[in-house]
Amino acid sequence: FLSIRDIRKIYRVGNEEVRALDGVDLVVSRGEYLAIMGASGSGKSTLMNLLGCLDTPTSGSYRLNGVAVEGLNDEELAAIRNEEIGFVFQTFNLLARTTALRNVELPLIYGGVGRTERRGKAERALERVGLADRMKHRPNELSGGQRQRVAIARALVNEPSILLADEPTGNLDSTTSAEIMELFDALNDAGNTVIVVTHEDDIAAHAHRVVTLCDGKIVSDVGK
Amino acid sequence: FLSIRDIRKIYRVGNEEVRALDGVDLVVSRGEYLAIMGASGSGKSTLMNLLGCLDTPTSGSYRLNGVAVEGLNDEELAAIRNEEIGFVFQTFNLLARTTALRNVELPLIYGGVGRTERRGKAERALERVGLADRMKHRPNELSGGQRQRVAIARALVNEPSILLADEPTGNLDSTTSAEIMELFDALNDAGNTVIVVTHEDDIAAHAHRVVTLCDGKIVSDVGK
Ligand SMILES: Nc1ncnc2c1ncn2[C@@H]1O[C@H](COP(=O)(O)OP(=O)(O)OP(=O)(O)O)[C@@H](O)[C@H]1O
Ligand SMILES: Nc1ncnc2c1ncn2[C@@H]1O[C@H](COP(=O)(O)OP(=O)(O)OP(=O)(O)O)[C@@H](O)[C@H]1O
Ligand SMILES: [Mg+2]
Ligand SMILES: [Mg+2]
Predict the structure, then answer these.
(1) What is the block-wise mean pLDDT of chain A (224 residues), using blocks of 10 residues?
(2) Which of A22, B107, B161, B183 is the most buried (most CB within 10 A)?
(3) A13 ligand 2 Cβ < 6 A
(4) Helices A115-128 and A144-156 sit at what angle, rounded to 10 degrees?
């Protein structure tokens, strides 16, 4: 289903080489629930960006549904991202000049969903993350945790078959975090694949398998 | 030392009124170590921005060292912020087009510190947060937790008498978080005032007093 082999991502900064990912192998089956953990700077977001078809490796291969992702052009990558993948970014990446509602509608607009239907779906997605009374606020009129929840609602709005969530509860109190994890658990129960990067053990506890990164390599991969 | 009385911060969004702070009274003594907790959207960042002289209330008063902050002009506010306050923003607010080192030097540049001295101080500040090998990276060449640590180093670099840290460990693993909390504890041991917004009980445990917000009001204020 999702197969990463000997993936490397190497950056150059001045004269130095930064090995963000340094030989990663990972196989994920459809419907799995995976947590990715590791110290700050260990390569988690880099790995997530590769999985989410937002970035390409320096070397190595990534096959998704049997297709070699490195062989796809920009249009094909954009299609996969829109149809299959929901991505919650560590830094949210919301459109600053438009409302929470519009931000959540965005994947549905790309997907060609009609106006009435997409508005209804976006409203429900925002209600599920507790933001029914913040739909018309723009990102700078929202708290940090509210922006994070808009990013989560946007990732969930077209019920993706693969959810990639990069530290989705970093700005949330424990009650709100628990509500978000319930949404992720339900998505997984419905047969979808969920991959969550987290620093917190009680968030990782929702997953069925925990992969730990250190200095761009996988150092442990433990299923329940 | 720091006295907030009947502070309100009210926003208008369309026809609606949002009461971000709805009558807050708070007195903090010099050298105290305070944690501010509360649900996402309860008003914590709004309160921190007021304390940090980055924002003004809709009504109510704020006296800092006996001076009425609402009576100060922009220059005077900027002087207080630079000389007395170190602020770690929930969204980091780094300058995107310059290096980690330059970002940390910024408060020292404003403070008129000479070039050699400020470079030394900035380098040491980055070493203390574990970023000795990332000084020449720009923010988009850093992980989320590394950006957060640059923001922390910048707030600590001129040993502020008041540190205001808004969710400083949200993007950090537990080992790195513990290192950051040691820096804050040391700052407080040296007699400085530390106020940390956090969602995590084990971070709040470092403080001597915990203030909890709900819907823009203080609902509990418990010292150890
Ligand atoms: N510019 C604004 N216009 C309208 N409403 C605002 C604005 N800024 C903040 N708010 C609202 O004020 C409330 C308090 O925001 P604040 O950022 O202080 O919350 P917070 O406690 O820091 O939350 P979090 O834990 O999610 O960071 C929120 O409900 C938010 O939607
Ligand atoms: N564009 C870039 N140029 C140079 N180095 C980079 C770049 N992007 C990331 N890095 C480096 O690659 C490493 C991995 O980054 P990544 O963002 O994947 O870490 P992470 O595990 O997500 O960390 P965190 O928990 O702090 O979010 C870091 O050490 C970072 O400094
Ligand atoms: Mg990251
Ligand atoms: Mg906040």
Answers:
(1) 96 94 97 98 98 95 93 90 95 97 96 96 98 97 97 96 97 96 97 97 96 98 89
(2) B107
(3) yes
(4) 130
